[in-house]
C-alpha cells in the first residue's frame, strides 16, 4: 500500500475523473433547480448543514468517483479511510446476510471518517461521491437515524407508510426524495463510460475500499492496463478484496 501522503494520481486518471466531475457539476445545477421548484410548491427538505444521520450508511461508488475523493484527502484522512475500509471488510466477511451487513455497518463500523462530528459537516464536501450528493430526506433526521425503523411499533410503521404515501417527492415507500436520486443517473453513466473508454473495464464497490485502492499503485497500474484479474490479485495482496465490496467487470 502506498504510504499516506505519497500518492499521486496517474495522469491517465484525469480522463476518467473529468467527465464525472462535469456530471457532478451538472447534477448540482439541476438538483438546485428541482429543489427550488419543489420548495416553491410547498415541499420540504430536512437535510442541511450539521445533519449527518445518513453518513453511516454503506455507499457504493465507481472507482472514477473514488479517485476524485482520494485525490482530495490529507494524509490523516487516508489512514482513517483505510481503517474504515478494513472495518467494512471485516463486516462483509462475517455478516450472515445483507440486512446484518447494513445494520452492523451503521451501528458498529459507524460514521464515515470524513465527517467532522463536532460540526456535522463533511470535510470533503466538494469531493464527496454521488450517493452523498443525491440523498435528500423529506422527513426529519430522526427517520434517517440508524435503529429508528427497528424501534418503531407496528402502528408507528403503518403511520410512517401513510405519511410517506402522502408526501410529494417520495417513491411512496421511503421518505427519501426520489426525483433527486433519479437525476443523478447520468453521473453513474458518465463514470461507467469513462472507465470503459480509458481502462476497458469497470470497477465498482464500497466507497472507502475503492478510495483506499485508488492510492494503491499496483492496483491502479493493473486497472489502467485493463487487467481485471491482476487488479483483483493486487487488491487481495493488500487485503482489500471481497466480492461484496469490490466488483471488477470487463
Ligand atoms: S463523504 Fe461526506 S457526505 Fe459522504 S458519508 Fe462521508 S462525511 Fe458523509
Give an overview in words.
This is Zinc/iron-chelating domain-containing protein. Pfam families: CxxCxxCC. The chain has one domain (about 15-250). About 55% of the residues lie in helices and about 5% in strands. It contains twelve helices and five strands. The chain has helices at about 15-40, 65-70, 75-95, 100-110, 130-135, 150, 155-165, 180, 185-200, 205-215, 215-225, 230-235; strands spanning about 60, 115, 120, 200-205, 245-250. It has a three-stranded antiparallel β-sheet with strand order 1-4-5. The longest helix is centred in the first third of the chain and has 28 residues, at about 15-40. The protein is globular, with a radius of gyration of 19 Å. Bound molecules: iron/sulfur cluster. Iron/sulfur cluster (SF4) binds near residues 114, 115 and 132.
Shape: globular
Number of domains: 1
Biggest sheet overview: 3 strands, antiparallel
**Low-confidence residue ranges:** none
Which small-molecule species are bound to the chains here?
Answer: iron/sulfur cluster
Structural class: mainly alpha
Adjacency order of strands in the biggest sheet? 1-4-5
End-to-end separation: 24 Å
Radius of gyration of CA atoms, rounded to a whole number? 19 Å
Helix and strand pattern: HEHHHEEHHHHHEHHHE
The count of helical stretches stands at: 12
Report mean pLDDT, rounded to a whole number.
Answer: 94
Protein name: Zinc/iron-chelating domain-containing protein
InterPro entries: Puta_zinc/iron-chelating_dom
Pfam families: CxxCxxCC
Organism: Deinococcus aerophilus
Amino acid at each position: 500500500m502506498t504510504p499516506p501522503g505519497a500518492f499521486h494520481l496517474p495522469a491517465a486518471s484525469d480522463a476518467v475523473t473529468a467527465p464525472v466531475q462535469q456530471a457532478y457539476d451538472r447534477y448540482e445545477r439541476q438538483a438546485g433547480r428541482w429543489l427550488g421548484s419543489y420548495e416553491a410548491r410547498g415541499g420540504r427538505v430536512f437535510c442541511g448543514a450539521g445533519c449527518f444521520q445518513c453518513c453511516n450508511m454503506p455507499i457504493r461508488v465507481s472507482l472514477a468517483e473514488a479517485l476524485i475523493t482520494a485525490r482530495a484527502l490529507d494524509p490523516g484522512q487516508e489512514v482513517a479511510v483505510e481503517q474504515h475500509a478494513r472495518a467494512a471488510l471485516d463486516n462483509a466477511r462475517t455478516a450472515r446476510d445483507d440486512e446484518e451487513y447494513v445494520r452492523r455497518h451503521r451501528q458498529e463500523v459507524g460514521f464515515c471518517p470524513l465527517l467532522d462530528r463536532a460540526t456535522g459537516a463533511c470535510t470533503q464536501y466538494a469531493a464527496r461521491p454521488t450517493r452523498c450528493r443525491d440523498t435528500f430526506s423529506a422527513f426529519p433526521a430522526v427517520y434517517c437515524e440508524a435503529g429508528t425503523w427497528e424501534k418503531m411499533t407496528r402502528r408507528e410503521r403503518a403511520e410512517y407508510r401513510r405519511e410517506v404515501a402522502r408526501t410529494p417527492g417520495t417513491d411512496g415507500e421511503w421518505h427519501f426524495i426520489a426525483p433527486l436520486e433519479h437525476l443523478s443517473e447520468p453521473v453513474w453513466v458518465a463514470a461507467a463510460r469513462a472507465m470503459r473508454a480509458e481502462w476497458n473495464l469497470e470497477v465498482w464497490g464500497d466507497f472507502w475500499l475503492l478510495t483506499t485502492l485508488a492510492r494503491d499503485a499496483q492496483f491502479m497500474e493493473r486497472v489502467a492496463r485493463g487487467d481485471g484479474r491482476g487488479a483483483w490479485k493486487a487488491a487481495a495482496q493488500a487485503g482489500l478484496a471481497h466480492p461484496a465490496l469490490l466488483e471488477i467487470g470487463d
